[in-house]
Amino acid sequence: MSAGRRGRGGRPGDAAPAAGRGVRDRGAVTAEFAVGMVAVAAVLVAVLAVGAATVVRLTCLDAARTAARVAALGESDGEVVDAARRVLGARGGDVRVQREGRWVTVAVSAPFITWGTGLRAAASATAWTEP
């Protein structure tokens, strides 16, 4: 092979370096990949946190609706709180029962991230009590 067809390394088939690119560009792809992976990881954590919040919010909503139905049947506040806690399961949470005349409102909140951030999901349901 002729010397003009050989690249920088002197091996046949090696291409000559592109104009304007030198030794200082080495490792740029690795650095860009590292920055990109951090961004991808941050987005993944955000998506998982939103998913966890949604699941806990729906569980709180189910607990509040169930407890409001139990309260509408004329059960005591203790029974209402027990019904909500049963739906919440092991995650626990706060249950508040408020009665105004024939209306009863049950508010439920529970933590959705266990990393000590104090973030909570909440829901409430209102029902008319049976005579």
Automatic annotation (TrEMBL):
Keywords (A to Z) from UniProt: Membrane, Transmembrane, Transmembrane helix
Region feature Disordered, mapped onto this chain: 1-21
Transmembrane segments: 33-56
Protein name (database record): Flp pilus assembly protein TadG
Species name: Cellulomonas iranensis
Lineage start: Bacteria, Bacillati, Actinomycetota, Actinomycetes, Micrococcales
